[in-house]
Design a protein that fits this description.
The chain is of the alpha/beta class. About 25% of the residues lie in helices and about 25% in strands. Strands 3-2-1-7-18 form a 5-stranded parallel beta sheet. Strands 9-16-10-11-12 form a 5-stranded parallel beta sheet.
Length: about 450
């Protein structure tokens, strides 16, 4: 007898799960119904800043698969339809057609929750004024582009200096805007330690971006026509023709919470290794993946929330395999992420110093400067590598890299070492590729590992 799979969310995790399940089971064996409240499916939210900045020419270049393509694969995809209730006891969901307002219950045998994350939008006066933009969906990106092309002024204020904040600052600089970034932290990129964040701040300032740190936004000031005209902190005002929010995201789990499903300390759904939602309420019939879940940090052993498309697509593949009768697991993450602002590359994996302290780990921290290529080879660029190692065992705990061309992807070596639970001494013997156009004789990551070995032997740094 045929079963029905219901999927809530039409982006990376949800449609990857639906597609993988369809590969494993025919329409006669498994009916798949997917609900998406937006206008697009399977798109790259990570690419929006590059589309806004002009590096990506067309919006549709960010779409991996259209609703029509999903339907051609026998997936009943219902666009502009929002699931407003999950009834786990009766195994059904209530969905609302956003055009007509009509509501309907749909029963399921298996349910996938892939509701993603929502941008943080602080409750401030003027936050909903025209000219204030978040950048989470393609609709958001289009609305921002419409404002940029329709506004004569050239002053932009970005609120927040995380990944989205610095990427949007770059996009706006590329469009010829005078950009101010207002950041509540001591340095930009709170995913880095402050000493590495300082390098990012210095580079952004050198690119003509005005950095305002240790500043709390209190309100958005509006003009007589109601549009945003400035961003205010406690003691200053920053004129703005456009305001972009880059404060971060939180798991979108209001539906799951109302259904009584288990959430972690960061607000994300809790699942087992197969991405099946834990607890008796789910009753073994509900899976979840993507930005709405928490995942195991393999370094600290704690649950954390990381909103990245790489994880979402893996979650979807794993869920689809399990729903489709196969078997797959997601063991966890080490927290690898890369970004850039103009020509500055930024990378991190593993734990920051405050993460290590929170986990009760004693560690040594070292920082080195090296070059991306042999020093004599044209184009060699400086990079800074920071490495943390556990004091007693020498186990690698984390790596942060800031530099120019060739810096960011070096973090992948550290990510593999973290996953393998290597010590920094073991890392020094890694057989990495060498030629003068690509690396010094001692790759910067290995130089940092050698220094970390010395720090561990000396009892910490």
């Amino acid at each position: 007898m045929s079963e029905r799979l219901v999927v809530i969310g039409g982006d990376a995790a949800g449609m990857s799960a639906a597609s993988q399940a369809r590969r494993l089971k025919s329409p006669q064996e498994l009916e798949i119904v997917a609900f998406e409240r937006g206008n697009f499916t399977s798109f790259s939210a990570c690419g929006i800043p590059y589309w806004v900045g002009g590096d990506v020419a067309e919006r549709d270049d960010l779409i991996a698969r259209t609703p029509e393509e999903h339907r051609e694969r026998s997936i009943d995809l219902r666009m502009r339809t929002e699931v407003v209730e999950i009834d786990a006891r009766e195994r059904r969901v209530r969905a609302r057609d956003l055009a007509s307002g009509a509501e309907e219950w749909t029963a399921y045998d298996k349910l996938v929750i892939a509701t993603g994350a929502r941008p943080l939008r602080p409750d401030l006066p003027g936050i909903d004024a025209p000219g204030v933009h978040g950048v989470q969906t393609l609709d958001d990106g289009q609305a921002l582009l419409d404002t940029l092309t329709g506004t004569p002024g050239r002053r932009a204020v970005v609120i927040g200096a995380g990944y989205i904040g610095v990427e949007m600052a770059e996009a706006l600089i590329g469009r010829g805007y005078e950009v101010t970034v207002v950041n509540r932290g001591k340095e930009p990129m709170s995913t880095l330690d402050p000493d590495m964040g300082r390098l990012v701040r210095e580079a952004m300032t050198g690119m003509g971006i005005t950095m305002v740190n240790d500043a709390e936004v209190t309100k958005i000031l509006t003009a007589d026509d109601g549009r945003a005209r400035a961003v205010a902190t406690e003691d200053r005002e920053f004129p703005a023709d456009v305001v972009v929010l880059g404060i971060g995201v939180r798991p979108e789990t209001a539906l799951a919470r109302a259904a009584g499903l288990p959430l972690g300390e960061h607000g994300g759904l809790l699942t087992d290794l197969a991405m099946r939602v834990r607890g008796p309420v789910a009753d073994g019939a509900i899976w979840a993946g993507g930005d709405c879940v928490e995942v195991l940090d393999l370094v600290s052993g704690r649950e954390r929330h990381i909103a990245l498309g790489t994880h979402a697509n893996k979650h979807g593949q794993i869920i689809g395999s399990n729903v489709g009768g196969g078997y797959a697991t997601f063991p966890g993450v080490v927290g690898t992420a890369v970004s850039k602002v103009c020509d500055l590359e930024i990378a991190r994996t593993g734990l920051r110093e405050k993460d290590a302290r929170a986990a009760g780990l004693q560690y040594a921290a070292v920082t080195i400067e090296s070059t991306s290529r042999a020093g004599y080879y044209p184009g060699a660029a400086l990079m800074t590598v920071k490495m943390l190692a556990e004091r007693r065992t020498g186990r690698l705990l984390g790596v942060q890299i800031v530099g120019r061309e060739g810096a960011a992807k070096r973090v992948d070596v550290a990510a593999v070492a973290l996953t393998a639970r290597m010590t920094v001494e073991q890392m020094t013997a890694l057989d990495l590729g060498y030629a003068p156009p690509f690396s010094p004789v001692w790759d910067p990551v290995l130089v940092a590992a050698r220094k970390a070995v010395s720090a561990v032997r000396a009892g910490g740094a």
